[in-house]
């Protein structure tokens, strides 16, 4: 299967170098953005960036440096990486989120996933899903397919055909799922190994990459639906074939209580996953909203990443991930996911915005604790609130974009994407920051209107401001 290029519309790879001129912005750390104005990036026919020139023309956020006028409205960002989504739940996107997690699975989700026994039905859904992901700027996705090997293969094939970088797993469960969606441990293990081998064989590595565009992921659904024997077997397959692993952990209160009742001795997801050697530097755990600090510390030490899904967590988890505490205290890599269809939207831009909004909830909690018990008498009341707000958990837009790009690449183990560097793959989205739909539908340049009244403070600041407006939903459009 030939390599594909997410940025290009044409299915035919180019035959000569491509030169792109413009503004390139990426997020090398959770607290910084790097801006390259008036820069040319050269991309080889195989999709590798071979030069970024002129070299050294890099500015970092909030550096105010005057620059010659240029078209700063059109910029390139690294493609978004969605690190947690359930492909077969796409048909129920934005509906049926009215039940607690375990009931939701039983009532809506397992019966829907069972329909993917029909490869023709699966194929139709996969094509719609993959095209829509790409249209929304998602160029990489880590996905749960269904339990069916054929449907899972077809999802991989669809991603390859449309050029979506993907890590895909056949979902495994050998208990606590309805009869029509159950499988035995043997079926689960056999199917997983078959898919892993097929995927590695089918998607050979392109020039400049160590592995194919689509890679297999060993995927125990989550602790409540997997016996210890199945977990052990899946762990052995992951080790034997050096694959990634994905599952859910500490998602919601009903899930946590079920795990406790099934495992009275080990009680917790992290303890059980550790016991079965399923936590590795190539493991992604979805949600983790109810992790304890010692559990987060284990993830940091093992290099296991978290896929945070803020919209889904508001709907199902009864908790919000303390992103900054886990990042800063325990060195846990945290990426973002839409959790289709636990989340409402397929758009990573929506997940990015939600990450910022829901992080404020921690600030609310701290305020109320402050009201109850943590008053510091010598500080003026306003100062106390200010201090608590600063020490809170706010995820700003730069950090959220880092999680959706660089953090996602780290989680997925895609070492050649996420930032713009020579030798990395060209995997990007082009965004127009300057335009927005006016109320009557006509285009209006919201940034320009304000700039008539303002002194320009330097071109880099201008780009940063436009990017922040785009993130917050006020301006820009993806092109
Ligand atoms: Zn999930």
UniProtKB/TrEMBL annotation:
Cofactor(s), by name: Zn(2+)
Name of this protein: Metallo-dependent hydrolase
UniProt entry keywords in alphabetical sequence: Hydrolase, Metal-binding, Zinc
Gene Ontology molecular-function annotations: guanine deaminase activity; zinc ion binding
GO terms (BP aspect): guanine metabolic process
A GO cellular component annotation in the UniProt record: cytosol
Amidohydrolase-related domain mapped to chain residues: 76-447
Organism expressing this protein natively: Ascodesmis nigricans
Pfam families found in the cross-reference section: Amidohydro_1
UniProt keyword annotation of Hydrolase present: yes
Gene3D superfamilies: Metal-dependent hydrolases, Urease, subunit C, domain 1
């Amino acid at each position: 299967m030939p390599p594909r290029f997410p940025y290009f519309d044409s299915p035919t790879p180019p035959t000569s170098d491509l030169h792109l001129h413009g503004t390139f912005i990426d997020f090398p750390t959770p607290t910084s953005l790097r801006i390259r104005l008036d820069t040319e990036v050269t991309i080889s026919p195989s999709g590798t960036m071979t030069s970024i020139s002129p070299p050294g023309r890099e500015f970092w956020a909030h550096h105010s440096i005057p620059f010659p006028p240029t078209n700063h409205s059109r910029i390139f960002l690294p493609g978004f990486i969605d690190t947690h989504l359930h492909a077969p739940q796409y048909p129920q996107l934005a509906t049926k989120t009215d039940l607690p997690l375990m009931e939701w699975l039983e009532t809506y989700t397992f019966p829907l996933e069972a329909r993917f026994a029909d490869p023709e039905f699966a194929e139709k859904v996969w094509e719609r899903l993959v095209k829509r992901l790409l249209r929304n700027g998602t160029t990489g996705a880590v996905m749960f397919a269904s339990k069916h090997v054929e449907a899972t293969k077809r999802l991989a094939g669809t991603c390859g055909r449309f050029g979506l970088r993907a890590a895909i797993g056949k979902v495994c469960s050998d208990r606590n799922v309805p009869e029509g969606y159950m499988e035995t441990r043997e079926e689960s293990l056999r199917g997983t190994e078959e898919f892993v081998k097929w995927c590695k064989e089918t998607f050979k590595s392109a020039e400049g990459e160590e592995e194919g565009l689509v890679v297999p992921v060993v995927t125990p659904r989550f602790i409540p639906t997997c016996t210890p024997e199945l977990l052990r077997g899946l762990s052995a397959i992951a080790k034997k074939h050096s694959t990634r692993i994905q599952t859910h952990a500490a998602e919601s209160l009903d899930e946590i209580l079920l795990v406790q009742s099934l495992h009275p001795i080990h009680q917790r997801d992290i303890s059980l996953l550790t016991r079965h050697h399923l936590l590795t530097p190539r493991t992604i755990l979805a949600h983790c909203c109810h992790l304890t600090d010692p559990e987060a510390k284990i993830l940091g030490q093992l290099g296991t990443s978290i896929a945070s899904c803020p919209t889904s967590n508001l709907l199902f988890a009864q908790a919000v991930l303390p992103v900054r505490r886990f990042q800063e205290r325990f060195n846990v890599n945290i990426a973002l996911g839409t959790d289709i269809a636990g989340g409402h939207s397929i758009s990573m831009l929506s997940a990015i915005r939600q990450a910022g909004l829901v992080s404020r909830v921690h600030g609310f909690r701290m305020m109320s604790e402050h009201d109850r018990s943590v008053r510091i008498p010598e500080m003026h009341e306003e100062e106390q609130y200010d201090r608590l707000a600063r020490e809170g958990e706010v995820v700003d837009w730069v950090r959220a974009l880092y999680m959706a790009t660089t953090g996602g690449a780290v989680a997925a183990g895609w070492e050649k994407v996420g930032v713009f560097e020579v030798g990395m793959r060209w995997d990007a989205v082009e965004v127009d920051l300057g335009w927005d739909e006016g109320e009557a539908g006509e285009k209006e340049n919201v940034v320009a209107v304000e700039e008539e009244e303002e002194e320009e403070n330097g071109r880099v600041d201008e780009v940063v401001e436009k990017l922040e407006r785009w993130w917050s939903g006020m301006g820009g459009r993806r092109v």
